[in-house]
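Hi V.,

You were right to ask for the full record rather than a summary. Here it is.
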Amino acid sequence: MENCIFCKIINGDIPSKKLYEDELVYAFYDVNPEAPIHFLVIPKEHIESTNDLNPNNINVVSHIFKVINKLVVDLGVSQKGYRIVNNCGEDGGQTVNHLHFHVLASRNLQWPPG
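Predicted structure:
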C-alpha cells in the first residue's frame, strides 16, 4: 500500500532496526519502546487489520507466532515472560492500518493495560 508506514519500512524506504526477516514477515524494534524489549512483527503482505484476515491469508498469523516464539527464545525472555499485543480498529488503539503484533518484555507488565 502506497502510504502505509509499515509497507515503507518493509520496502526499505523508511529505516528500521531489523530483528528478523523472511519471505512472509518482517520484525523490527519499536522506535518508541514501552519496555526494554519491544518489537513488532508484521506480514509483508498488506493486511489492514485482524478484521481483514480470511482463508487466503490467515496462515500468516500462525507464521508470525512461530517467529515470535523464535525471537523471544533468541532474546532470552521466553522463560521470564512477555506480552503479545494486537490492536484492532480505532477503539482498540490501532494507529497503523497494517496488521502487526507488538511483543514487549523485560519488565513487569501490569494488567489491565491502558
